[in-house]
Amino acid sequence: MLKRTHKCGELRAENVGRTVTLNGWVDSYRHHGSLIFIDVRDHTGVTQLVFDPDQGKEMYDLAATYRREDVIAAQGKIVKRQSVNAKIPTGEIEIVVGKSERLNKCAKPPMLPDESRDDTGAVSEDTRLRYRYIDLRRPRMQQIIRTRHKVTQIIRNTMTEMGFCEIETPVLCKSTPEGARDFLVPCRLMPRTFYALPQSPQILKQILMMSGFDRYFQIVKCFRDENLRFDRQPEFTQLDVEMAFVEQDDVFAAFEQVIRAVWKELLNVEVSDIPRLTYDEVMNTYGSDKPDLRYGVKLYDITAIARKCDFRVFTSAMESGGVVKAIAVPGAGSFSRKQTDALAEWVKQFGAGGLPTTKVSAGGKLEGGIAKFLDAVAPELIATLGANDGDLICFAADKLDVVNRVLGELRRKMANELKLASENQWAMFWVVDFPLFLWNEEDQRWDSAHHPFCAPRPEQLHLLETDPHKITAQTYDFVINGHEMVSGSIRIHQPEVQQKIFKLLNISDEEAKDRFGFLIEAMSYGCPPLGGFAMGLDRLVMLLCKTDNIRDVIAFPKTQTGADLMMQAPSAVGAKQLDELNILLKPEAK
């Protein structure tokens, strides 16, 4: 084998005259008269090879049989190109090949790793996932996966510099289902029992703090058996962090140091002061607990203005104790009646009965939609919303949570369609002061807003007995450009408080002992005040690489149905394996 001396993207004009050997894949093939031109590619780039029969007829005839994605080796002398290709870094030179060999012949490929096909949709995603080993050869995919590597290296270095210790936690754990379903693994050595794959190392990292490690981190695989979406996979990776003897500000400072290091080293961007917004503030102002703050389009409570209007939708909502809110969407005043009707239909999935709208025309007047009901309040309404000529004003009238949800989702949709957000802007902030509990109307019970180990504010502990709905949790999220990047909390470290929380969540003593007994026991032997967070690594790389598909940033991802198309998993197993595990399958439903 002709072993490479250089990589395919390294050579430049200053290397002219040297004899080198390259190994790689055939990226393109052109037969021009008596010369054959081949671009050879590896992960660093491409270099043009020139095959001339005067350099050897046997070698030239071999090159004539090369085809796309063959793996080859080529040795020759670097010369200046007569026609410079300014589109590639190696475009000033080419190699006149003296020796060559085919290292492996490629069967007719079902797809080609063309850079031009990255964003055109020319190849279906199913095909890309089925032949992932070809898809990953694309320069764009190489760049994304290598960016992911750089991010993890920066994180590890930064965490280590701050005195954190990386500790691995088990993949085979006890099933303690919270929220999503667990993936279960049958145990052959203990028949009729199961391990669970961890949804998060939450309990284990708390126990590490009780064990005296003080500062832990891990870049860890987590598993959730839940319905998938564009930014979620059944197995995902997170930066998992826990700290002992800390308060909320200490946790914030640690994560902010990580995010500043990543942005500086990867993007050369200095992250300025990061604001903190309360849960109530973001929900009432943006209709979401993870709003994108790169653009305005705030929700305004116009209930007082609506009382001056004779519009039945408004008055009916207010009579039922509801509110009226509105947003002004920049530039959407050009929407047709068909488009606004489509929006009215779209918002129904979020609980709205419809979507009253009107447009701000030249001279600050309202026209179209429900304009005739707003004549008396038009100037006041426009001033309150800060609306401009050409804006579309959208209204929602209902219970507060419904109104916030409807306009929050509409705000996001309009921003995407009208491209209101700047791609090169980074809007980062903390969301704090979440409620500790949410009332489950269907089951008539309290649920954890985050998870059952979040600590209430110390001054509100007495409300556990009387007014749980008034308790604020010491929980927090970190949001970047509308994506929840971090979720965390200060944890409960007193067994008696944890038991009260379990009781409020309708978790009996027996159930708590069965599911969390080892944690409660560990707390009783001396648990320090502790807190931490988990950051979605996949989502972070999505943002940094400016893709909206989480499968792009994972080397071997699953489809929306949880299938691995390349490995053909999940798959059936034989009767012998099932018998060893004491598993009997139910008959297939007819």
Summarize the structure.
This protein is an alpha+beta fold and 590 residues long.
Structure write-up:
This protein is α+β, with helices and mostly antiparallel strands. The protein folds into three domains: 92 residues, Beta Barrel (OB fold (Dihydrolipoamide Acetyltransferase, E2P)); 262 residues, Bira Bifunctional Protein, Domain 2 (BirA Bifunctional Protein, domain 2, 2-Layer Sandwich); 124 residues, Gyrase A, domain 2 (2-Layer Sandwich). The chain is 28% helix and 24% strand. It is built from 16 helices and 22 strands. The strands form five sheets. Strands 6-9-10-22-21-20-17-11 form an eight-stranded mixed beta sheet, with helices on both faces. Strands 1-2-3-5-4 form a five-stranded mixed beta barrel. A five-stranded antiparallel beta sheet has the order 12-13-16-14-15. The longest helix has 23 residues.
Layout of helices and strands, plus pairs?
Elements: E1 19-32, E2 35-42, E3 45-51, H1 57-63, E4 71-80, E5 93-104, H2 125-130, H3 132-135, H4 139-161, E6 165-166, E7 183-186, E8 194-197, H5 202-210, E9 215-223, E10 235-244, H6 248-267, E11 276-278, H7 279-286, E12 300-301, H8 303-306, H9 312-319, E13 323-329, H10 337-346, E14 357-361, E15 365-367, H11 378-385, E16 392-398, H12 400-418, E17 428-432, E18 437-440, E19 445-448, E20 475-480, E21 483-490, H13 495-504, H14 509-523, E22 530-536, H15 537-545, H16 575-580
Parallel strand pairs: 3-5, 6-9, 11-17
Antiparallel strand pairs: 1-2, 1-4, 2-3, 4-5, 7-8, 9-10, 10-22, 12-13, 13-16, 14-15, 14-16, 17-20, 18-19, 20-21, 21-22
